[in-house]
Structures are given as C-alpha cells and as structure tokens.
From TrEMBL:
Pfam families: YqeY (PF09424)
Gene Ontology MF term list: carbon-nitrogen ligase activity, with glutamine as amido-N-donor
Top-rank taxon, per record: Bacteria
Protein name: Transamidase GatB domain protein
Length: 149
C-alpha cells in the first residue's frame, strides 16, 4: 500500500523539476530522502502516518536550526531554513487551533482518568495519534503538565 502523501510529494518533485524551481526541488528531495532512509532502515514501505512522523521531525529540525542561526546572528542561513520549513509544512494537515488543543487535552484527561503527573504518559498516548503533525507535541506536553499539576 503506497502512501498517498508520498505520491503527492513525488508528483510535486516532478513539477518542481519542470518549473526549474531549485529551492523547492531541493527541499522536496530532502523529504523524499528522509522517507527512503526510513524505508531502508525498516525494510518496509512507510505508511501515511509514518510520512507524517517524518515530516513532523523535519519541521522540528528546521525550527531548532532557525533558532540556533538567529541566536548566532546568521540570518542568511536562517532564511534558507525558513523557506524549507514553509515547503515542508505544505504537506502537513491543517494545524490545530488553541481551542481544539485544549478540548483534545481535556477529553484525553477525562478518558484516561489521569489525576496527576504520574499518568501523563496515558494522556499523551491518547493525544499523540490525533495531534501528530498538526500541533507541536512539546507545547501540548507543557499544557498537559500544567493541567495535571
């Protein structure tokens, strides 16, 4: 079973080649290389959720790089990372709003019956599949901590 998202990324790579859009092509090849690496490592085709996990990881790497480049005063490198980030985010589902995140957290806490920090893992286990690729899991983790403490 081939992931539809992976096919879309491959088609976009071909379009970028035809349009001679070097920056977009480079970023899309980077995405496909990450997917291919995962397939080689696991010796099986990456699922739709697997592609989202990879994209989420790439977004996190770009955000970290942007922060480090800005801290070092390297706006030239930071702008390259920001351009890549925008292209990668095109393939992620629409982000969750603050209200949706809060509702998701409240439902997960209620569903798991969590009452303290020891049960945070249960809550994260319920939320992660619903929010993966749609919200910053670090931010969600912080919100769960504040609600459980």
């Amino acid at each position: 079973m081939t992931a539809a998202l992976k096919n879309r990324i491959t088609d976009d790579m071909k379009s970028a080649m035809r349009a001679k859009d070097k920056n977009r092509l480079q970023t899309i090849r980077l995405i496909l290389a990450a997917i291919k690496q995962q397939e080689v490592d696991t010796r099986e085709e990456v699922s739709e959720d697997g592609v989202l996990l990879i994209l989420d990881k790439l977004v996190k790497q770009r955000r970290d790089s942007i922060k480090q480049f800005n801290d070092a005063g390297r706006e030239d490198l930071s702008s390259i990372e920001e351009a890549e980030l925008l292209i990668i985010q095109e393939y992620l589902p629409t982000p969750l709003t603050e209200d949706e995140i809060t509702t998701l957290i409240d439902e997960a806490i209620q569903q798991s019956g969590a009452s303290g920090m020891k049960e945070m893992g249960k809550v994260m286990g319920i939320i992660k599949p619903k929010a993966q690729g749609r919200a910053d899991m670090g931010k969600i983790s912080g919100l769960i901590k504040s609600k459980l403490s």
